[in-house]
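Supplementary Note 2. Why include the ligand at all?

Several targets in our set were suspected to adopt different conformations when bound, so apo predictions alone were not considered sufficient. For every target with a known small-molecule partner we therefore ran a joint prediction. The input for magnesium ion is given below.
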Amino acid sequence: MEMIKTEDLTKQYGRLFALKGLNLSLSEGDLFGFIGPNGSGKTTTMKILATLLQPTWGEAYICGLSIYTRPKEIRRQIGFMPDFFGVYDDMKVIEYLEFFASAYRIRGAARKKVCDDVLELVDLGYKREALVTSLSRGMTQRLGLARVLLHDPAVLLLDEPASGLDPRARIEMRELLKRLGQRGKTIMVSSHILPELADICNKVGIIERGELLVNAEVNEVMKKVRDRPVLVVELLEPAGGAPGRSADDALRFLSDQPEVESADLKKGQIAVTVKKGVTLDAYAELLPRLIAEGFRIRSFREEEINLETAFMALTKGMTA
Ligand SMILES: Nc1ncnc2c1ncn2[C@@H]1O[C@H](COP(=O)(O)OP(=O)(O)OP(=O)(O)O)[C@@H](O)[C@H]1O
Ligand SMILES: [Mg+2]
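The joint prediction is reproduced in token form.
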């Protein structure tokens, strides 16, 4: 089922297009990473989907419900976590959640249970009796997430939940999102940085200046960045003054192999790009050949894709 769908969604502020003809479609269980720099239109999109902001034109549906005609029903289906949200002074964590649970008309024993459940889920059970103002930024973000889970929404719109968190808290937030994804929630989560989301999301969209530049499955995006594997070979120094067989020799030898398009030596590592269409199976042949030639191999592996580089490559020139 289509959980989020937008058609030509556009928002103008005067002459500025905060959002320009956005077309998105997310299915049940999708974890969509919405990536873009400051001012690219992420918050605008999420606020429109959360029915808090009217688009200038275009359509958006949540669970098949139009934002124009069914906003009340949509609000029951979504959990929107804004990038900054206030917490109230002099309120304990549990009181804060109970307050919002009652706003969702959850009462009595059910309310107690749901509050305990979401606290457990975000690992804040031990802060139950703490004042909300005493929580760290990471804990506050997790509390914010707990709050939007109270009414068990099918769709989560999370605006930069990891911003301002330290590296460890970021990893915890990622794990939490993964867990929610596994529970079948459809999640749209925004961030400035692709690497942060690429390993937990199944789809990504990259937006700049209101325009969606990339919208694809994570696997597809990775393929676009690199259409074939790059092999990295590291050699041990020749044993005890043995002749030849240096990294330069290996470079020459590898360059001459029929599967190889190019080989470069950088910091003692040889990066080998194979020809288009060469499979992993075929390039595995290179290892025994190197050994047969008397090279001493320290490592032989496929180079990992650097997501930072991938992001730059994907958006390069697109916004010029
Ligand atoms: N109320 C407003 N009036 C005028 N312009 C606005 C308004 N709200 C947003 N904008 C503009 O719309 C554009 C998109 O803003 P938006 O907040 O959606 O970006 P964002 O991707 O969420 O950025 P950030 O990463 O900084 O949160 C920006 O150029 C912003 O200045
Ligand atoms: Mg924003």
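The CA atoms of residues 47 and 53 lie 5 Å apart. The longest helix spans residues 167-182. Comparable summaries for the other entries are listed in the accompanying table.
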